[in-house]
Amino acid sequence: MKTDLLQMVESGGCSAKISPQLLEEFLRYLPLPHDPNVLVDINSHDDAGVYRVNDDLALVFTTDFFPPVCSDPFEFGQIAAANSISDVYAMGGTPVIALNIMMFPASKLPIEAYSEILKGGSDIAEQAGVRIIGGHTIDDFPPKYGLAVVGYIHPDKIITNAGARPGDLLILTKPLGTGVILAGQRMKMASEDDVDQAKKLMKILNGPGAEVMKKYNIKGATDITGYGLAGHALKMAKASNLSLELNLAKVPLIGSTYRLVEEGCIPGASFRNLDFVENDSHLRPDLNYSLKMIGMDAQTSGGLLMCVKPEISNQVISDLHHTGLTQSAVIGRVTEKQDKFLYLE
Ligand code: CO
Ligand code: CO
Ligand code: CO
To answer: What is the dihedral of CA 244, 249, 252, 254, to 10 degrees?
Structure first.
């Protein structure tokens, strides 16, 4: 019988992250290193940590792992690996080596499923030019997989949440909706075509998008994952001490995401993300409810959200379209700090 990993989990992918509030609460108790070579740590809520080796070289270091987002073990491995490597790209780094992180119920899954997950991970790692040089496995249920990834970066060229500037336009490189569509699949509401589109997007590396950021010397960016567009935008606004305005009607969506949300397909993680952003956000009173909830949708292996000077935004969009990120679009802008960090309209 073919292994169906989705049978084993309630929430897969980045939806399985703990709530952002809880994370902030317990990170307060984490002693932080005081070392001038630590260039980025958890203080700025960035995607990865950065450590300076010398004046020309720093290491970007990150890990992500999660339960299955799809039925097929090979595809799950591909998506998990693309998602793990993404945090290096989001900071402008070049990923080079990785370790497999695997939790696997030895008694509940055939050994082939396990090797398929690892093969999927290797497939994407190879595409990214990343060498997997080891790993660690624990007997655990439900299964979880991801990578710890190390990348190179020049210490002066780090792209962070704190790099937004007033007047910048916000460009998103992948459409939203992976959380909605995966929930829709579970509830038998999403079409096969929706699921295929979502899976295809989750496997796309953020490497080409990161190359465009480097070409145009972009300083502020993040990738959109478990906290949704609004949650990650809020982290960026706070780190930069500015306000971000998101025009949710302009956000590109995967397949029938909007219809699914209208029909009530809203994953639990969206409400958790709404709780996280609400106090710091101004929601336009007549904001469409479905669009609002799409802004909260937890993405797995989502796109980059980058801060771009208006005078180069057309070139950036056209470059992104040429790399195959054909739905890249301007979805908002950065302003001086206003009353609230986030403005949703
Ligand atoms: Co990230
Ligand atoms: Co991450
Ligand atoms: Co070990």
So the answer is: 120
